[in-house]
């Protein structure tokens, strides 16, 4: 049996809709255990802070009948120089699944390469695939079909937008990205997404005009301007991204029934105002709750392979 990992959202491209539907099913039967998870253990290495990802993964394992171990690298031998390769071989001899929130994407790839059990990327500098399952569950709940909807991302061209542009292209949603010219997303992700979009009949557009990005949008999405690990760029980013704040004025360009999304944590008053985050259009807490149900879907999917 070949083990499956979730390092990039593209790893689950063919099964993405099935996993989203599985998440929606878990939501309807919250305390249902899974024979695939009962008695299994998940190791969770977190190099960076987390509220949603940690709590959703730990709770998902518990509710499904397994258990989870939170592993802080500074308490592990990894923090004293044990290599990622050796850590991976040791942990996969004892655990059934490993999640890793890392500063470096290369380390997540390495952990997966040397592990004999599935590895989940719990966010790195390039992607946040777990968040995509919860986000698209939320869109399915609020908007139904993905195909033909307009998804607008406004803000920093970061790890979130890399995963979002790929997922929109995979699901046939048109995505319009509004970022300042000096904070555009990684071009290699845009190219990959454009190629997929050609196959699914959707579009990927980039602009440095926030009003244009959200024109007639069904979904407006933003994320923090300063991601974890980028603290040195705070002053520059907060200045450059100011015109990209999602506020009452900007959202006037969207469709009346648009939904506002954010992976959270939100920095209110910066990338989004209270008025938008707490508006009737905002689905941020539904989106956050869906992290639990989507975590279950990801775990069961990977353990069933
Ligand atoms: N959205 C998200 O991953 O949140 P945390 O950083 O709290 O896990
Ligand atoms: N872009 C953010 C997402 C946090 C969930 C970060 O990497 O810090």
UniProtKB/TrEMBL annotation:
Residue ranges of every copy of the Aspartate/ornithine carbamoyltransferase Asp/Orn-binding domain listed in the record: 147-301
Entry GO MF terms: amino acid binding; ornithine carbamoyltransferase activity
Reactions catalysed according to its record: carbamoyl phosphate + L-ornithine = L-citrulline + phosphate + H(+)
Keyword line: Cytoplasm, Transferase
Annotated binding of L-ornithine, by residue: 159, 223, 227-228
InterPro entries hit by this protein: Asp/Orn_carbamoyltranf_P-bd, Asp/Orn_carbamoylTrfase, Asp/Orn_carbamoylTrfase_sf, Asp_carbamoyltransf_Asp/Orn-bd, Orn/put_carbamltrans, OTCase_ArgI
Similarity remark: Belongs to the aspartate/ornithine carbamoyltransferase superfamily. OTCase family.
UniProt-listed PANTHER family: ORNITHINE CARBAMOYLTRANSFERASE, MITOCHONDRIAL (PTHR45753), ORNITHINE TRANSCARBAMYLASE, MITOCHONDRIAL (PTHR45753:SF3)
Protein name in the entry: Ornithine carbamoyltransferase
UniProt lineage: Archaea, Methanobacteriati, Thermoplasmatota, Thermoplasmata, Thermoplasmatales
């Amino acid at each position: 049996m070949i083990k499956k990992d979730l390092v990039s959202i593209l790893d689950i491209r063919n099964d993405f809709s099935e996993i989203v539907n599985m998440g929606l099913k878990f939501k309807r039967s919250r305390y249902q255990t899974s024979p695939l998870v009962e008695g299994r253990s998940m190791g969770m290495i977190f190099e960076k802070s987390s509220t949603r990802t940690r709590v959703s993964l730990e709770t998902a394992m518990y509710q499904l009948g397994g258990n989870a171990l939170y592993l802080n690298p500074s308490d592990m031998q990894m923090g004293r120089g044990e290599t990622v390769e050796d850590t991976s071989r040791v942990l996969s001899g004892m655990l059934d699944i490993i999640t890793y929130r890392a500063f470096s994407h290369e380390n997540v790839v390495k952990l997966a390469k040397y592990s004999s059990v599935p590895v989940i990327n719990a966010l790195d500098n390039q992607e946040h695939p777990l968040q995509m399952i919860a986000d698209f569950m939320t869109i399915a709940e609020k908007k139904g079909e993905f195909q033909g909807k307009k998804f607008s991302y406004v803000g920093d061209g970061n790890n979130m937008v890399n995963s979002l542009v790929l997922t929109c292209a995979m699901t046939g949603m048109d995505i319009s990205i509004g970022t300042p010219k000096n904070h555009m997303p990684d071009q290699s992700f845009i190219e990959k997404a454009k190629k997929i979009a050609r196959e699914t009949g959707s579009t990927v557009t980039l602009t440095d005009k926030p009003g244009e990005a959200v024109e007639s949008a069904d979904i407006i999405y933003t994320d923090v301007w300063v991601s974890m690990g980028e603290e040195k760029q705070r002053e520059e980013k907060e200045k450059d991204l100011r015109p990209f704040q999602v506020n009452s004025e900007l959202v006037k360009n969207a469709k009346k029934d648009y939904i506002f999304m954010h992976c959270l944590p939100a920095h209110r008053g910066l990338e989004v105002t209270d008025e938008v985050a707490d508006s009737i259009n905002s689905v941020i807490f539904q989106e956050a709750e869906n992290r639990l149900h989507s975590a279950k879907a990801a775990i069961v999917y990977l353990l069933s392979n």
